[in-house]
From TrEMBL:
One of its GO terms (cellular component) is cytoplasmic vesicle membrane. It comes from Cyprinus carpio carpio. This is AP-1 complex subunit gamma. Belongs to the adaptor complexes large subunit family. It comes from the Eukaryota. The lineage of its organism: Eukaryota, Metazoa, Chordata, Craniata, Vertebrata.
Length: 822
């Protein structure tokens, strides 16, 4: 059989291939020849064939059929064979193949070989692909080589020990005695690998970290080595761009960072050397910047002196002026991490950070934007907002949503005046209105409502903005709401902050009607506009025109718009005496907890004149989503939705009129439900219908015994029962939640679900905090309609925060007293 071609010739031949198919053909032909040679047990050219196979493997072609040949080469006595065999093992084998276990004996023999280079090959292979079984079997040999005086073997043994510790962490203590003398070695290769080994041991074991801090006095040794590196003269063997062994310096700084974190003594011992590194390292080359960056990270992580931290932040500030984009990005990222702890020091570089907003690189822009928002405070809010608004005007669409959100939050927190706050948010809406968050509209409406003295100025500004551009939907929605609320101020020209404009009632109505027919308007915006027109019926004299507009949309194809128009028409006709009270100006709104004791409705401009439309009340809409989550958890189709409402706070007479109005208009859009049992189960009736003047509970409630529905982790939920007078099919259950632990349970939410044959309604809870030590309770009323008098079953979901940790639990309640459902 002719001798196979050499590796060099194969490479040359493959490189002459003009197409992928031609190259594939050459590879397949050579692979066939190699397979034939392997079958004939050709020992002469096995090394050459495996080398060619490894080259094909590097090109991405399959070479798994050469695995056993690698083992044969490892078992050979020739060094050249062993070298190719071990290289093949590292490339072709891993611990997922059982073949690698056959190597264990060969590696063990080679670790005890008389030639250091053979021992080095075995250490490299074990450190590269050794499995946990191999590491357990060979850890003793590695530990023995770690103690040898041969620096060539010690550095390889140290890296192999790192791999062993990663695979079998419990063998870590075996290498502890060998680490004592590693740092006294003068060879930089041994020092480098020793620091890597010590870093691995400290990261993986807190006990090892404590041992090296106190018993081994590791920090002084590392400080000594680092000081020698800084003070040493030129050494051609270790010099990189004028800096002595930067790789070793970086490794030592990382280990110092681990040792000094959270430890006062260790941090104190390394403060001086860190200051020396920070001041003596050359910054003209990238090598010096790498060392300075590691120094900064170490200073920030340990308990360093304040002056040293300022020095570190100044280094990052110099990085921001570097031409290298990577260095600028690293500096911005590091400053973002430290801005909360060293705010004043970072503030000194504010102008440089703001300049980074103009960078062409999008990653640098994003980091600069995030850092700019972190630097905003009450002193610089005007200047920073000016820069950020300019950035919002010119930035890419990808940035606008985050930038607008950040401006809203910063303005809300640090606004120097309400007028400035309103102007800033309006500027955002006019430039990036389509990108703002969903909650920006109700938040701005609340801000405007609470700024009583700014109403005339705001409505005038918004009206002008509406004339210029109606494409920004959030802006249009806020403007519509304000015109509906304060349209009389707009027409009367009472603005004192700027020159008032002369606007007639018809011009205002023309603008709002234009929004209703505009193709740019979304269904939500049209709802705002129709509601605004309806509000103006009590503020303007053009009543006939408003009635005409409202009646037209009573047959709108949009169901939401149609329902609003029908309800508004009912106000004009049957309930015209209530219209002024219903459409009066909104009171000042306050933000409160969602399920707090006294819940204030935070309107988004749509619901103030549509008290009929209960789905716009936050106290209902938010628990609705929670109810859906609960139903998903409960599974199946045998549960009905939860109807949750707030307790009416109006006087009794007004409440009675409103409830009569609700019953007449029918929230479900169908005929008015009379008896509860006749309503289809797919559309549950409003359980408060008909309860306008009668007492809720009768006198026989005391005969139903209370029960404990839930008792776990210190939280007890008790049910007490009463019967509803107007409808004996309705059971009124009051829950009492108490907390016997030593800490309050906050953000408490109780939810419930019942089978389809029942209907359930949750009223608002008395609080969302269950006090500790049973010092109080949270109460909540549940109303259950049971027309078929079936046994009551209920699943409950409890969500709360206890000692900073969120808790969520599900339970099933089936032991209701018979009197509660019979």
């Amino acid at each position: 059989m002719p001798a196979p071609i050499r590796l060099r010739e194969l490479i040359r031949t493959i490189r002459t291939a003009r197409t992928q198919a031609e190259e594939r053909e050459m590879i397949q032909k050579e692979c066939a020849a190699i397979r034939s040679s392997f079958r004939e047990e050709d020992n002469t050219y096995r090394c050459r064939n495996v080398a060619k196979l490894l080259y094909m493997h590097m090109l991405g072609y399959p070479a798994h059929f050469g695995q056993l040949e690698c083992l044969k080469l490892i078992a050979s006595q020739k060094f050249t064979d062993k070298r190719i065999g071990y290289l093949g093992a590292m490339l072709l084998l891993d611990e997922r193949q059982d073949v690698h276990l056959l190597m264990t004996n060969c590696i063990k023999n080679d670790l005890n070989h008389s030639t250091q280079y053979v021992q080095g090959l075995a250490l490299c292979t074990l450190g590269c692909m050794g499995s946990s079984e191999m590491c357990r079997d060979l850890a003793g040999e590695v530990e023995k080589l770690l103690k040898t005086s041969n620096s060539y073997l010690r550095k390889k043994a140290a890296l192999c020990a790192v791999h062993v510790i990663r695979k079998v962490p419990e063998l870590m203590e075996m290498f502890l005695p060998a680490t004592k003398n590693l740092l006294s070695e003068k060879n930089h290769g041994v020092l480098h690998t020793s620091v890597v080994l010590l870093t691995e041991m400290c990261e993986r074991s807190p006990d090892m970290l404590s041992h090296f801090r106190k018993n081994e006095k590791l920090v002084p040794q590392l400080v000594r080595i680092l000081k020698n590196l800084i003070m040493s003269g030129y050494s051609p063997e270790h010099d990189v761009s004028g800096i002595s062994d930067p790789f070793l310096q970086v490794r030592i700084l990382r280990l110092l960072r681990i040792l000094g974190k959270g430890d006062d003594d260790s941090s104190e011992a390394m403060n001086d050397i860190l200051a020396q590194v920070a001041t003596n390292t050359e910054t003209s080359k990238n090598v010096g910047n790498a060392i300075l960056y590691e120094t900064v990270l170490t200073i920030m992580d340990i308990k360093s002196e304040s002056g040293l931290r300022v020095l570190a932040i100044n280094i990052l500030g110099r990085f921001l002026l570097n031409n290298d984009k990577n260095i600028r990005y690293v500096a911005l990222t590091s400053l973002l991490k430290t801005v909360q702890t060293d705010h004043n020091a970072v503030q000194r570089h504010r102008s440089t950070i703001v300049d980074c907003l103009k960078d062409l690189d999008v990653s640098i822009k994003r980091r600069a934007m995030e850092l700019s928002f972190a630097l905003v405070n009450g002193n610089n809010i005007r200047g920073m907002m000016k820069e950020l608004l300019y950035f919002l005007d010119s930035c890419d669409p990808d940035f606008k949503a985050d930038c607008a959100s950040g401006i809203f939050l910063a303005a809300e927190k640090y606004a120097p005046s309400k007028r400035w706050h309103i102007d800033t948010i309006m500027r955002v809406l006019t430039t990036a209105g389509s990108y703002v968050r969903d909650d920006s509209v109700p938040n701005l409406i609340q801000l405007i409502t609470n700024s009583v003295e700014m109403h005339a100025y705001t409505v005038q500004r918004l009206y002008k903005a509406l004339l210029d551009d109606i494409s920004q939907q959030p802006l249009v929605q806020v403007a519509s709401w304000c015109i509906g609320e304060y349209g009389d101020l707009l027409v009367s020209g009472q603005c004192e902050e700027e020159e008032p404009i002369q606007v007639s009632e018809d011009e205002v109505l023309d603008v709002l009607e234009g929004l209703l027919v505009s193709n740019l308007s979304t269904p939500v915006t049209r709802g705002y506009s129709l509601t605004a027109i309806m509000k103006l019926s009590t503020r303007f004299s053009s009543l006939n025109r408003i009635k005409k507009v409202v009646s037209i949309y009573g047959s709108s194809i949009d169901v939401e718009l149609q329902q609003r128009a029908v309800e508004y028409n009912a106000l004009f006709k049957k309930y015209d005496h209530m219209r002024p009270a219903l459409l009066e100006r909104m009171p000042i709104m306050e933000k409160t907890a969602t399920n707090g004791p006294s819940e204030t409705v935070q309107t988004n401009g749509e619901t103030d004149s549509t008290i009929l439309d209960t789905k716009h009340l936050p106290s209902i809409s938010q628990p609705a989503s929670q109810a859906n989550d609960l139903l998903d958890l409960l599974g199946g189709n045998d549960v009905v939705p939860i109807i949750q409402t707030t307790v009416p706070t109006k006087p009794a007479s007004a409440g009675g009129e409103l409830l009569d109005l609700l019953g007449d208009l029918s929230l479900t859009g169908g005929p008015t439900p009379t008896p509860a049992s006749s309503v289809p189960m797919s559309q549950p009736p409003f359980l408060l219908d008909g309860l306008t003047s009668q007492p809720l509970f009768n006198d026989i409630a005391a005969v139903i015994p209370p029960m404990t529905a839930y008792n776990k982790n210190g939280l007890i939920i008790e049910f007490t029962f009463e019967r509803s007078n107007p409808n004996p099919n309705i059971a009124v259950i009051t829950i009492h939640a108490t907390n016997s632990t030593e800490a309050d349970m906050t953000e408490f939410v109780f939810q419930a679900a019942v089978p389809k044959t029942f209907q359930l309604q949750l009223l608002s809870p008395s609080s969302n905090v269950v006090p500790a030590f049973n010092q109080g309770s949270v109460t909540q009323v549940i109303r259950v309609l049971n027309p078929q008098k079936q046994q009551l079953r209920m699943r409950i979901k409890l969500t709360y925060t206890h000692k900073g940790s969120p808790v969520q639990d599900l339970a099933e309640v089936n032991n209701f007293p018979p009197q509660s459902w019979q």
